[in-house]
Design a protein that fits this description.
The complex is a heterodimer of chains A (416) and B (227). With 416 residues, chain A is of the alpha+beta class. Chain A is built from 13 helices and 12 strands. In chain A, helix 1 crosses helix 11, helix 2 packs across helix 11 and helix 11 runs antiparallel to helix 12. The two termini of chain A are 37 Å apart. The mean pLDDT of chain B is 93. In chain B, strands 6-7-8-3-9-10 form a 6-stranded mixed β-sheet, with helices on both faces. In chain B, strands 2-1-4-5 form a 4-stranded antiparallel β-sheet, covered by helices on one side. Chain B starts with 7 loop residues before the first strand and ends with a strand. Chain B has a single domain, classed as Rossmann fold (3-Layer(aba) Sandwich). The chains are: A alpha+beta (416), B alpha/beta (227). Chains A and B meet through helix 1, helix 10, helix 11 and helix 13 of A and helix 2 of B.
C-alpha cells in the first residue's frame, strides 16, 4: 500500500467517524443539549466582550477625533473631588481674557455657558431643546465642527447681544424638515432668535451623548435673556498650536489659572482640564474594567461548559462501553475510537459556539439599544469564538476520548 | 490456500487473571489445531474457560502463556492496530447478546465493519443489502434493532459478521437468548455459512447445539478433555 492511499484511507475512516459521531450525538439529544447550552453561554459572553471592547475602542477614537488632539476643555469645579456644594462657576471672563492674551501657544479661547431644557417653536411646531449653549465668536472653529450652511457667530453678534443662533442638525430637521433654516426666526421661551448657521451632523460628542440637538447663541445674549450670572461661565474651550506639546500647554494653563484664582499651594484646583489624552485614559480604564469583568464571566462560563462536557462525556463513554468494545472487536483501530469521541466533543462545542455567537449578538444589540454598552461586531468575534470552542472541545474531550480508546475490546464488551 | 497447514494453531495456551492478590488460572495449557473450512464446537460448562478461549482465538484478548499461530504467524508480538486489522479482515463475530448499535438501522449496523476500511460506501451498502437479503431480512433494511425480534437481531449480527468476507466465523453462544425454533433457524444459517467454505468456531454449553458441528472440543476446568 502506498503512502498516499494510506493517507486517503485514514481520511476516509476519519470522515466516517464524523458520521458515526453525528449519529451518536443525535441519539443522546439531552446530553448533547446540555453541553451545547453550557458552551453557548460562554461563547455568548465572549462575543459580547469582544464586541464591547471594539465598541469602546471605536467610541474612544470617535470622541478623540471630535474633541481634537490640539484642544483642551476647562470646566469650573474639580470633577475628581467634587465636594458637596462646591462652586462650579469659577471661571470668569477675566480668566478668559488673560488666557487669550498671555497663555503661550493658545490661539483660540472660547468660553461657554449653557441653559438646559428650553422650549423652541416655529410655525406651530414645538420642540424641547435639551441644551442651549452660549459662547463667543468662533464656536464652530473651536470644536472643529463645520457648518453645513450659513455662517458662524461673529464678534459683532457678541457685542450687540444679537438675537441670532446656530442650529443643530437634528433640531433643524424637526422644525424645518427639508427646508433651509437660514434666515428664519424661531421663538425660544417667547423671545425671537434668527437662525444664521446650521451645524453639520456629528452623531456623538466627546462626552458620549447626542450633540445634534443643541442651539448655539452669543453668550451675551444668553445671559441677558435667561437672566444668568454675568461674570462667570461654566466651561472654556482652548485650542493650541503644536499639539505635540499638549502636556506643557496644559501645565502652563493650570498654573496660570491657579494664579488667577489665588489658590495657595496646598489648595486643590477649583477647575478641571480635559484633553484627548485624558479621554483616552478614562476609556482605557473603562475598557480594562470591561475586559476584566466580562472576561472573568466568559472564562468561568466556558470552563463550566467544558467541565459539563468532560463530565457528561465521561459518563457517556462508560455507558457506551459495549458499543466501543463492539467497534474494537469489529476492527476499529484505537485512533478511530479517539477520533470519534473527539469529533463528538468538538461538534458540540462548535454548535454551541454558533448558537452562542447569535445569542451574544442578540444580547449585545439589546445592551446597545438600552445604551448600556457601545458594541461593534466584526469577523474577529467569529475567529475568537471558533478558536475558543475548538480549544474547549479538544481539551475537555481529550480525557474521555483517551479513556474510550484505551479500553481493551474485551473489557469494554464485558462492561455491559 | 493449502490444506496442509491449520489456519489456527493453539500451543499450550494459558490465561491467568489477576484478581487482587489472587491468580485465577482460567486456561491451563490448551492446544488445538483448527483446519481451514472446519466447523468446530468448543463445548464446556460455565467456568470451563470456553469464552476466554474464544476471546483469545478472536484476538480480543492476549494469552499469558503458550503460542498462537494464525495462518502460521505468531500473533503474540503484533501491535494493537495490526490485531484490529486482522479482526476486521479475517474474523467475523457473533455474540450471545447480538451487540447491535441501537440508534442506527439494521443496514447501517451491517455496514459497520466496512467503515474501518477503504471500501467505497456504495459498495458497502450494496454488500450489506445482499447479506441482509440472504439472511431473510430484505424488508427490514431500515428498521432499528429495537424494532426487530431476537432472531432477526441475530440475523443482522450474522450479516454484519460476513460483511468483510472473513475466513473465520466465531460464534459465542449464538442461540443463548433465543427460543428453540429460532435457534434451529440460526444454526441452519451457521451451517450454510460453513457450506460457503468458511471456518466456523462455535462456543456453547449445550450438547445439542454442539452436535451441529463436525468436531467437538470439550473444555473442562481450563483444559481440553479427552474422550
Amino acid at each position: 500500500m502506498t503512502a498516499w492511499s494510506r493517507i486517503a484511507e485514514i481520511g476516509l475512516i476519519a470522515w466516517r467517524c464524523a458520521g458515526m459521531a453525528r449519529h451518536a450525538l443525535w441519539a443522546a439529544k439531552t446530553r448533547s443539549l446540555f453541553v451545547v447550552a453550557g458552551i453557548a453561554l460562554g461563547i455568548a459572553s465572549l462575543t459580547i466582550i469582544v464586541a464591547a471592547v471594539d465598541g469602546a475602542e471605536r467610541k474612544a477614537n470617535e470622541m478623540v477625533a471630535i474633541f481634537g488632539p490640539d484642544a483642551a476643555l476647562v470646566l469650573g469645579g474639580n470633577i475628581e473631588s467634587r465636594a458637596v456644594g462646591q462652586r462650579t462657576l469659577t471661571l470668569s471672563y477675566e480668566d478668559a481674557a488673560v488666557l487669550r492674551r498671555s497663555l503661550p501657544g493658545a490661539y483660540l479661547v472660547v468660553p461657554m455657558r449653557a441653559k438646559s431644557n428650553v422650549q423652541v417653536r416655529y410655525a406651530g411646531r414645538v420642540t424641547q431643546v435639551p441644551l442651549v449653549v452660549g459662547t463667543t465668536a468662533g464656536y464652530a472653529r473651536a470644536w472643529d465642527w463645520p457648518l453645513s450652511e450659513g455662517r458662524d457667530l461673529s464678534e459683532e453678534d457678541l457685542t450687540r447681544s444679537a438675537r441670532v443662533g446656530l442650529i443643530g442638525d437634528t433640531i433643524a430637521q424637526e422644525l424645518f424638515g427639508k427646508q433651509s433654516p437660514i434666515g428664519r426666526t424661531v421663538l425660544m421661551d417667547r423671545f425671537p432668535v434668527q437662525i444664521v448657521g446650521r451645524l453639520s451632523y456629528r452623531g456623538v460628542s466627546g462626552g458620549g451623548g447626542a450633540v445634534d440637538d443643541r442651539i448655539i447663541m452669543p453668550i451675551t445674549t444668553l445671559t441677558k435673556r435667561f437672566h444668568l450670572e454675568r461674570n462667570y461661565f461654566r466651561a472654556l474651550r482652548v485650542k493650541f498650536h503644536d499639539p505635540e506639546y499638549m502636556s506643557a500647554h496644559v501645565e502652563n494653563m493650570r498654573s496660570l489659572l491657579r494664579h488667577l484664582h489665588n489658590l495657595r499651594p496646598e489648595e486643590e484646583d477649583d477647575f478641571s482640564i480635559l484633553t484627548a489624552d485624558e479621554i483616552l485614559q478614562f476609556l482605557s480604564t473603562f475598557k480594562g474594567g470591561l475586559i476584566l469583568f466580562l472576561g472573568v464571566t466568559a472564562l468561568v462560563a466556558m470552563v463550566v461548559g467544558g467541565f459539563v462536557l468532560a463530565n457528561l462525556f465521561y459518563l457517556g463513554v462508560d455507558e457506551r462501553r459495549s458499543e466501543i468494545g463492539l467497534k474494537m472487536a469489529l476492527g476499529a483501530p484505537r485512533w478511530a475510537i479517539l477520533t470519534q469521541i473527539l469529533l463528538e466533543a468538538v461538534g458540540l462545542t462548535l454548535i454551541g459556539a454558533i448558537l452562542g455567537m447569535f445569542l451574544g449578538m442578540a444580547m449585545g444589540q439589546l445592551l446597545a439599544r438600552l445604551e448600556v454598552l457601545e458594541i461593534l461586531f466584526s469577523w474577529k468575534v467569529f475567529g475568537f469564538a471558533l478558536f475558543a470552542s475548538l480549544a474547549i472541545g479538544l481539551i475537555f474531550g481529550l480525557k474521555p476520548a483517551r479513556r474510550a480508546a484505551s479500553m481493551t475490546p474485551i473489557e469494554a464488551l464485558k462492561g455491559n | 490456500m493449502s490444506g496442509s497447514q491449520p489456519i489456527i494453531q493453539l500451543q499450550n495456551i494459558e490465561k491467568t487473571f489477576l484478581l487482587g492478590d489472587l491468580n485465577i488460572e482460567v486456561l491451563k495449557g490448551v492446544s488445538i489445531d483448527i483446519d481451514q473450512g472446519e466447523f468446530v464446537a468448543l463445548r464446556g460448562a460455565s467456568g470451563s474457560g470456553k469464552s476466554t478461549l474464544m476471546h483469545i482465538l478472536g484476538l480480543l484478548d492476549r494469552p499469558t502463556g503458550g503460542r498462537y499461530l494464525l495462518q502460521g504467524e505468531d500473533v503474540a508480538n503484533l501491535p494493537d492496530d495490526r490485531l484490529s486489522a486482522l479482526r476486521n479482515q479475517l474474523f467475523g463475530f457473533i455474540f450471545q447478546t447480538f451487540y447491535l448499535i441501537p440508534y442506527i438501522s439494521a443496514l447501517e449496523n451491517v455496514m459497520l465493519p466496512g467503515l474501518y476500511g477503504a471500501t467505497p460506501a456504495r459498495q458497502l451498502k450494496h454488500r450489506a443489502e445482499e447479506l441482509l437479503t440472504q439472511v431473510g431480512l430484505a424488508d427490514r433494511f431500515h428498521f432499528r434493532p429495537g424494532q426487530l425480534s431476537g432472531g432477526q437481531q441475530q440475523r443482522v449480527a450474522m450479516a454484519r459478521a460476513l460483511l468483510n468476507d472473513p475466513q473465520v466465523l466465531l460464534a459465542d453462544e449464538p442461540t443463548g437468548q433465543l427460543d428453540s425454533a429460532t435457534s434451529a433457524e440460526i444454526m441452519a444459517l451457521l451451517q450454510s455459512i460453513h457450506g460457503q467454505g468458511r471456518t466456523v468456531i462455535l462456543v456453547t454449553h449445550d450438547a445439542a447445539t454442539a452436535d451441529f458441528a463436525e468436531r467437538e472440543v470439550l473444555l473442562h476446568d481450563g483444559l481440553v478433555q479427552d474422550r
